[in-house]
């Protein structure tokens, strides 16, 4: 197989610019702060570095080498900006600018030899790769999914190549300059560069796609006002909990919680204040519940709590604790503190073979209405035995 270096050079540059163009198209219509803009620019900088290195014969050598190295280091800095923007994290200014300044220093007459410059610049760029790798795994701004794996593998490979090159120059295996290692080395560099460009573009596209999928899922399953599971999600959770309890003959309790006289809050303080109260009640529920318990917003001012492996007695204790927490925690609203109470209907005990999520919710609902009728700010319950009557009533119509 013959790998023709000029052809490879043209292919790599064309593919890089084409990728940059498609990424610009993806970013079109997004704000200037979107991560795909610096990524597209980074690819342009990388293509420019290749072009500048190839102009060594036409331009004064020092100008071509300096500009080529600056463009290469700049492309890595821009990639760091892209990752940080993706994470919505702060961009460390020195991490972006210092390497570019160092390229100037390392190419200056301060360096003892051309070899020393070349080795140091390769190590510097490997250091920039390490910054990219550590950004990908920054625990404060986690990135999930396969896109990160693609980027991690690519940056690791590139770090290895840069360090290998530094070692090869240091030990005299290859000379200084892009072409110094001979046509084979150069062909290998171009092939690896093309793999890297394609992988980086694909990695970013994956990350963006996976984030959009996660967001869609959250919007489909989360209540945006309170951050709790929405009706669909908590209903699905309850169906799974019922099936599991039936399989294992386990205990399962359900609480239906309704804020008392909530309409008055909206009427007296306005709808946004009502929203603040909903958030505050949701927070109070979240704080009290254990990790295995499930909670969701079931309707306007109604919440559903599912308590796996919990009998009636335990559910009543928890319901009473939640009632007290909400009563003692008024929602701050401007200069006011809006106090509300809740009525709780509890269905607790074992789950029979004929039970369904609907029958469990209906039982908790019946108990909750008794709590309303009994004067509100109360907990009422339906034990598992009484459920048979509720089920019969549902089936009857
Ligand atoms: N602010 C706000 N209000 C909501 C939301 N969803 C439903 N509501 C309001 O919740 C109120 C429910 O009122 P009602 O069903 O009469 O119940 P209530 O006033 O709590 O009375 P009881 O349940 O009998 O104690 C209505 O005014 C709805 O407009 C919401 O997302 N935000």
Automatic annotation (TrEMBL):
<dbReference type="InterPro" id="IPR000160">
    <property type="entry name" value="GGDEF_dom"/>
</dbReference>
<dbReference type="InterPro" id="IPR050469">
    <property type="entry name" value="Diguanylate_Cyclase"/>
</dbReference>
<dbReference type="Pfam" id="PF00990">
    <property type="entry name" value="GGDEF"/>
</dbReference>
<feature type="transmembrane region" description="Helical">
    <location>
        <begin position="182"/>
        <end position="206"/>
    </location>
</feature>
<keyword id="KW-0472">Membrane</keyword>
<feature type="transmembrane region" description="Helical">
    <location>
        <begin position="62"/>
        <end position="82"/>
    </location>
</feature>
<dbReference type="InterPro" id="IPR043128">
    <property type="entry name" value="Rev_trsase/Diguanyl_cyclase"/>
</dbReference>
<keyword id="KW-0808">Transferase</keyword>
<feature type="transmembrane region" description="Helical">
    <location>
        <begin position="94"/>
        <end position="111"/>
    </location>
</feature>
<keyword id="KW-1133">Transmembrane helix</keyword>
<feature type="transmembrane region" description="Helical">
    <location>
        <begin position="149"/>
        <end position="170"/>
    </location>
</feature>
<feature type="transmembrane region" description="Helical">
    <location>
        <begin position="6"/>
        <end position="29"/>
    </location>
</feature>
<dbReference type="GO" id="GO:0052621">
    <property type="term" value="F:diguanylate cyclase activity"/>
</dbReference>
<feature type="domain" description="GGDEF">
    <location>
        <begin position="250"/>
        <end position="384"/>
    </location>
</feature>
<feature type="transmembrane region" description="Helical">
    <location>
        <begin position="117"/>
        <end position="137"/>
    </location>
</feature>
<keyword id="KW-0812">Transmembrane</keyword>
<dbReference type="InterPro" id="IPR029787">
    <property type="entry name" value="Nucleotide_cyclase"/>
</dbReference>
<protein>
    <recommendedName>
        <fullName>diguanylate cyclase</fullName>
        <ecNumber>2.7.7.65</ecNumber>
    </recommendedName>
</protein>
<keyword id="KW-0548">Nucleotidyltransferase</keyword>
């Amino acid at each position: 197989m013959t790998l023709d270096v000029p052809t490879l050079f043209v292919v790599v540059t064309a593919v890089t610019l084409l990728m940059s163009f498609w990424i610009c198209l993806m970013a079109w219509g997004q704000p200037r702060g979107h991560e795909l803009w610096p990524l597209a620019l980074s690819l342009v900088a990388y293509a420019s570095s290749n072009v500048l290195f190839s102009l060594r014969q036409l331009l004064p050598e020092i100008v071509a080498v300096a500009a080529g190295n600056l463009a290469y280091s700049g492309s890595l800095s821009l990639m760091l900006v892209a990752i940080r923007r993706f994470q919505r994290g702060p961009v460390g200014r020195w991490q972006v600018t210092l390497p570019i300044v160092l390229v100037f220093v390392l190419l200056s007459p301060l360096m003892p030899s051309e070899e020393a410059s070349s080795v140091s610049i390769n190590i510097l760029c490997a250091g920039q790769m390490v910054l990219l790798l550590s950004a990908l795994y920054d625990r404060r701004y986690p990135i999930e999914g396969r896109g990160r794996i693609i980027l991690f593998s690519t940056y690791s490979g590139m770090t290895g190549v840069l360090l290998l090159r530094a070692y090869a120059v240091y030990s005299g295996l290859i000379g200084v300059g892009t072409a110094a290692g001979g046509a084979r080395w150069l062909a290998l560099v171009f092939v690896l560069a093309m793999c890297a460009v394609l992988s980086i573009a694909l990695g970013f596209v994956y990350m963006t796609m996976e984030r959009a999928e996660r967001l869609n899922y959250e919007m489909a399953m989360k209540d945006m006002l309170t951050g709790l599971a929405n009706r669909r999600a908590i209903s699905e959770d309850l169906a799974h909990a019922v099936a599991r309890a039936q399989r294992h003959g386990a205990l399962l309790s359900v609480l239906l919680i309704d804020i008392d006289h909530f309409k008055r809050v909206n009427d007296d303080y306005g709808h946004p204040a009502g929203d603040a109260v909903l958030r505050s009640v949701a927070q109070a529920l979240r704080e009290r519940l254990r990790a295995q318990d499930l909670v969701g917003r079931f309707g306007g001012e109604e919440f559903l709590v599912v308590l796996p492996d919990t009998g009636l007695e335990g559910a009543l204790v928890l319901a009473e604790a939640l009632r007290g927490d909400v009563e003692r925690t008024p929602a701050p609203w401007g200069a006011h503190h809006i106090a509300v109470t809740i009525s709780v209907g509890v269905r607790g005990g074992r789950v029979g073979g004929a039970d369904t999520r609907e029958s469990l919710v209906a039982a908790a609902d019946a108990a909750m209405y008794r709590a309303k009728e009994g004067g509100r700010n109360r907990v009422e319950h339906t034990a598992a035995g009484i459920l048979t009557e509720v089920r019969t009533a549902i089936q009857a119509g």
